Amino acid sequence: MTISMKNGYYYGENLSDLETEMARFSALNYPSSLFRSSSCACGGSDFKLQTDEEAGVARRICAVCNLQHLMGDSAEYVEESNPDDHICVCDATIFALLSGVALYPDSNDVRWYYIGCHCRNCGLIGVFAHWKCEAGDAAAFLDNI
Fold it and tell me: What are the C-alpha distances in Å from 87 to residues 20, 71, 116, 132?
């Protein structure tokens, strides 16, 4: 683990560093207990990210094949959303993505959804979007990220 801070931002080398940062961030709200990285059907692991936190919608766009994928339960809410592109502080738009979920006590139901990004250009890590999420079973939810 090699997390460092520069100008108020955290930087890391890999998804393990991102998971550590997401755990720190989520502990301030509802702690994430399950994490899963995104990958495309083409095998790609780098994405552009669009989100609308108010509507609870996230879309990833593969940097290799441009396939668009609505993450988690976003398909249920996309019609009333207006997703914005995420841009790193270095102006890059390509990220490795890691999703984290907080669960209700004594349950496997999703309570809160976190989307973490690792910038492929500068190494910045952080939670770029999060929202309350009543998505039901966490395993099924994470299978669709």
Answer: 21, 18, 13, 23
